[in-house]
Fold this protein.
Amino acid sequence: MLDAFEHEFEAMINDAKFQGIYLPKNTHVNDAFLLLKEYVVNPEQFKLIEDPFGLKYIF
């Protein structure tokens, strides 16, 4: 699951209009931050948000 998501994640990181990354519901938070560390210079500038519907995203 993570490998398939990784390509999509990389494309979103490279998108100039980057606003936030919505995570699939079954994505573990640690996996998301590991991906951030791999693709982003300063991952600590991002925060994980969970909306009232249980959707998680990184902004």
